[in-house]
Write the structure tokens for this entry.
Amino acid sequence: MTEHTKTDGLPELMPLPDAAPQVLDKSRPRSERMASDKIECNACPVLCQISPGRTGACDRYANAEGVLIRVDPVVLLRRTLESGDAALVPFVARSAESDSVARSVEPAADPLARSEEIFVTGIGSSTTYPDYKPAPFIVASKVDGVDMVTVVTEGIFSYCSLKVKIDTDRWLGPEQANVRCKGEVVGHVTTAEYGSQMLSLGGVHHLTGGSKKEGRVTCDLMLALGNKQAVDISIDGGAQVVIQAGRAPIVNGVEEQRMRVGCGSATVGIFAKQFFGQADEVVVVDDHITGVLTLHQAGRCLDMRPSGIRIRGRKSTPGRYFQVANPGTGWGGTDIADPLSIIEGWDEAVAWPGLRLLMVSTTGEHKAWYVLDDALVPQPAQMPAAIRTVVERIGENCEPSLTTVLFLGGAGGSLRAGVTDNPVLLTRRIKQAMVNVTCGGAPAYVWPGGGITVMVDVMRMPNQSFGTVPTPALVAPIEFSMALDEYQALGGHMAQVRSLADVLRSGAWHNDGAPTARRFEALPSANVWPLGQPPLLG
Ligand code: SF4
């Protein structure tokens, strides 16, 4: 049994309520050896014994005058935030009498409780652990005249990871290389995508399959990234990178600016007509495919005169070369600082003195202009204005470099029991597009195949959406929305359905371990309203 030894008080955000809410659910077991003023939290398997005025090991639950409460307020989304909305509003204690009234799902008299305006998220909502408990919020609402219900909970995700997309052509490390944080392995480099390096971080093997320290560091890293904070990572045999959702990555201390416009071949193709007549040869240096204009199909179609250039590396197809150099953080994601180092030579029978050569990277950040001398040696020269304009256009066509963090979690396990007595029906109905899954109100993509494997962009979730428990595992909000009669048909917990008006007034259907206050946040501008939307299915 865990004896919690935390000594600091409750977070300032959530003062203990003056009058502790009445407890309707007394099902939590107590240890006989526990001090009489302590209470046991059973919101996760750690089972903290919490002294009065203290929080449990995760800082999410507290002992408020003998009542277990969820420390953070439950977050509700509102289409448009009005002044004062962001304030904490305490819930009114639920009594047995008010509870019976609250089961009515009639349209709310409270003008605040218009369901087209308000969505209850799982953030701060509390959980269903030890799993047989109905979800803390099962909210009835009306959308376009249809009775709907949203089942709201915080999931404890043992199986979860982060997929991180880093927009850069700089080489961060070999695929499959370990990614470390504070010396611990927290993930690996995975398959690169177009203009982006990809990482897979976290996951059950790092959370629970290694040392205790590895699990704790992995959990802390996932929490920070999920909550849009910056983390410092290093890649074995590669770069040191600072990543943060929605921000540019910092690679070896240098903030990345641009995502490449395309590979070298694509860049040649896109700008071929603009180069035509201004340069006799253009080489776009790229770690993936280096493009050579006069040999490329684009140059051939424009009837460009061959230049006689010979490029190092492995020829793929005309004008397209692989492996012109090693990967790195230099020109076009290669390790070169001198672009001429990838030119093997010139065919003397074809090249000519005075030939004008542009070397440029796929972002336009690296560029150099040369003219061949009488010995067919490229000599640096001042870049003409017309060529500079095209190079600037390459830069203009690059999107800003960003780090994107997607949370991937498996919700197909025990938390389903908080939704229905017959969990497989929930899984099936999600796959049949009858149930919309959101995380903190953000649209969640549900993977095809078995289970309920959801993927969501953390930037579309409200701030501080994630928490942790020391098992270790991540805590994330999840909501299931569907028609009320659908919910009844899949074996939903109808006795715990509450009207939105009642939820706004009194909070969760039970008071034990429930939040004691609510707070509104504006719907993130990138999101559609979560109710009444078709599911994002694979
Ligand atoms: S770690 Fe948190 S959720 Fe788990 S038992 Fe302790 S206080 Fe409760």
